[in-house]
Design brief:
The chain has about 350 residues and is α+β, with helices and mostly antiparallel strands. It has two domains: about 1-75; about 85-340, 4-Layer Sandwich (Phosphatase 2c, domain 1). It has eight helices and eleven strands. The protein has helices spanning about 1-30, 35, 40-85, 140-155, 160-180, 285-290, 300-315, 330-335, and strands at about 90, 95-100, 110-120, 120-130, 195-205, 210-215, 220-225, 225-230, 250-255, 260-265, 320-330. The strands form two sheets. Strands 1-2-11-10-7-8 form a six-stranded antiparallel β-sheet. Strand 7 (about 220-225) and strand 8 (about 225-230) form a beta hairpin. Helix 6 (about 285-290) crosses helix 7. The longest helix has about 45 residues, at about 40-85. The two termini are about 35 Å apart.
Length: about 350
């Protein structure tokens, strides 16, 4: 009740001030004798009155728009924080850090998504990129992440997890199409024709073995003592949305993540970033600099990459950017334990919490 009462004076004030200024200008024009004269001085005074009224209206409208913008950014930021919730710094022996930077400065939200969850099948991670950015992409991010967070525990096969994500996306797009075109009165013919999501699914076993399914997403980089190289070079599947997935999906074996090795997952906004001369950002070269400056921690990788990226783009990236770093912090003894000894996510006592928002 208090909130309702508090809103009423604001609305009355918002409507009352422009009305009062307009009434003052009309009253002056109709009732003031000076406004009826044709002399130069009278015209100057009349012009000054109307200029003051117009300036007041412009200032009032500007302040109202700024208040609305601040409210939108506050709500959007809260929604983004709820969707891309902070990750623990350690998940089943893996050190983790992630961060996201939106290109939509008016809303502070993006269309990138990521999540890491420890399951009985291994640590499973997703990195995705929704077409477009800003508030319109939040619904799609929520649909994909919500499906992933449930499917990774239910499905032993990584291919079935991807099918669950595909069905959740199609369902979300059909519902959005019905909301946007309620007058159609029927099921939309092709609700996914112009919408797509690139998705990378990873599974890291207790022994460090990596399997992956990739739908149109950039392959992550593997950081080892010997250097930096792509995790895989196989052609990915098409993004989710425009084309149906194959009925049978076989995850791709991608080697192993040995103790001390790191995986750097990213969205294409990183390598598509350009400087003032149109040159693309070299992610691999930046990672080579990270490897040369040991020790490597997920937080160090994030700080180094974002600093280099913002310097390259002069603080103005043209697309959303997300980075997720997974480092195998297990010992050789831990890696040799049987698969039944897998633990759940647990916070580290010696690692700082990752920063999820810049």
């Amino acid at each position: 009740m208090f909130r309702i009462k508090a809103r009423v004076p604001r609305k009355v004030l918002a409507m009352g001030l422009p009305t009062a200024w307009g009434a003052m200008a009309i009253t002056y024009k109709l009732a003031c004798p000076l406004a009826q004269q044709d002399g130069f001085g009278a015209r100057v005074v009349t012009s000054a009155v109307f200029f003051a009224v117009g300036t007041g209206l412009i200032v009032h409208v500007r302040r109202a728009l700024l208040r609305e913008l601040r409210q939108v950014r506050k709500v959007a930021g809260a929604a983004q924080s709820a969707l891309l919730r902070p990750l623990p710094s350690r998940i089943d022996g893996l050190n983790v850090a992630a961060a996201q930077l939106s290109a939509d400065r008016s809303a502070c939200v993006g269309g990138d998504l990521y999540e890491v969850i420890a399951t009985e099948h291994g640590v499973r991670a997703v990195m995705g990129d929704v077409r477009g950015h800003g508030i319109a992409a939040l619904g799609t991010v929520a649909a994909v992440l919500g499906s992933f967070r449930e499917a990774v525990h239910d499905e032993p096969d990584l291919g079935r997890v991807l099918h669950r994500l595909d069905r959740a996306l199609a369902r979300h797009l059909r519902e959005r199409a019905r909301e946007e075109h309620p007058s159609a009165g029927r099921e939309p013919d092709s609700p996914v024709a112009e919408e797509f999501v690139t998705v990378l699914l990873l599974q890291i076993g207790r022994d460090g073995e990596i399997t992956a399914l990739n739908c149109g997403h950039p392959w992550p980089y593997l950081l080892t003592g010997g250097g930096v190289e792509p995790l895989a070079r196989a052609d990915p599947l098409p993004p989710l949305g425009p084309f149906p997935l194959p009925v049978e999906l076989t995850p791709l074996p991608c080697g192993s993540l040995q103790p001390g090795d790191s995986l750097v997952l990213y969205t294409d906004g990183v390598e598509d970033a350009r400087d003032a001369r149109g040159r693309f950002f070299s992610l691999q070269a930046a990672l080579m600099g990270v490897v040369r400056n040991a020790p490597i921690t997920p937080q160090t990788v994030l700080r180094t990459l974002f600093t280099a990226l913002l310097r390259h783009t002069r603080g103005r990236p043209a697309d959303d950017v997300a980075l997720l770093v997974l480092r195998n912090g297990r010992t050789r003894v831990e890696c040799s334990q049987p698969s039944g000894a897998r633990g759940t996510a647990r916070p580290a006592t010696h690692n700082p919490q990752p920063t999820n928002h810049l």
